[in-house]
Amino acid sequence: MSRTIRDYLSSRAQQFERDCLPYFPTSHPETHILQEAMTYSFQAGGKRIRPVLAIAVTELLGKPVPDIIPAALAIEMIHTYSLIHDDLPAMDNDDVRRGKPTCHKVFGDAMAILAGDGLLTEAFHVAARYPEKTGLASGKLDFIHALADAAGIRGMVGGQAMDMENAEGADEHYLGLLHERKTGAMIRIACLSPIILFGVEEKIHHAIDTYAAAIGLLFQVVDDILDETAEVGDLGKTPGKDREQGKLTYPALHGLAGANQLADQLVLQAEQALAGIPDADILVQLAGFIRQRSH
Q1: Would you give the DSSP letter of residue 30?
Q2: What domains sit in the chain, N to C, each tagged with a CATH number?
Q3: pTM score
Q4: 124-182: per-residue pLDDT in tens?
């Protein structure tokens, strides 16, 4: 990974961390533990790849980055809530996330559930209220609609249900649909949030959507590979859980060599989607980063 993309990721993640603070939910004194649990998980680290993607597309469009921060925050809060709930004993039953004890290990199962509920609900509060610009009202409403699709039964939650069902005889088509929803939907909405909020010509919309679909699946394929190959100190969570639970993954379906080949093909698809779009080099490099990441 080049120094350029490392610097870009770091600077835009820091920009997001700083600029999202005025919008991050606060609570009353009576619910301070809930606030602590929400903040603990939200600030536990992570690459902030979804907000960075939203910022990168906004910059590509030449639009004001401050206007996309509330949407990026809403997306990241929903992503964080999903991790809290995924780690619960009734789901993936994991004790470590991003190298730290998971929310339910620190605050208990009940408060972890409420922390996830709080982040999900407050995400839509932020998305509905900000940015407070009359000219963006229509795009903001369209974004809320798309965000609900990406996060709910048509997207991430539906994909999680498919993953838990682990349907007997599931094949590559089933696995692709599962991850298009479980992982891909929230990465796609991150890329499309500026497109929806600001409005752009159809050519750019189609190119970014195709790119987003490729890197959304790429993210999960690399996750599957890392679950087989990474150490807990690098991964930040317990490796080997998918195999232990008998889940269908790309390495299980194709072997590690086949999964790596698929990941390389998806990077190429992402690059090809952006051909002819000026100044898209950062998005191309972000696809490369997702492919090369170690956690």
Answers
A1: G
A2: 3-292 (1.10.600.10)
A3: 0.92
A4: 999 999 999 999 999 999 999 999 999 999 999 999 999 888 766 678 889 999 999 99
